[in-house]
Write a structure and sequence with these properties.
Number of strands: 0
Shape: rod-shaped
Strand content: under 5%
Largest sheet: none
Length: 123
Amino acid sequence: MSVRAMKDGAVEFLTKPFRDQDLLDAIHQALDSDRVAREQRAKAAELRRRYESLTPREREVMQLVIRGLLNKQIASELGASEVTIKMHRGQVMHKMRAESVVELLRMAETIAPISAGTSHTKV
């Protein structure tokens, strides 16, 4: 019964008789877990909003940036000038509010964990 309860999302399984403090601890643990989960969902939703503000070209550039390509390589792949790619890359970093490519990659992983950094699936 306890295994089933845990699989169904129970935070704790208390057997009778239990101490009042055990119940209070379980409630606090559940509230803390819920708060963390809500914060993570809110952060992911904000990152998705930022991503959706990107133009289709900026999204393409972002995908290539998080794959680790250099501006010159991105320009070649997209048939654009390196200056244009630098501009798009700057816009991506600004709109996503990323300080570095590593941070941009982490953002992409938060939005779509499986697709970040792969060449087959887009964020």
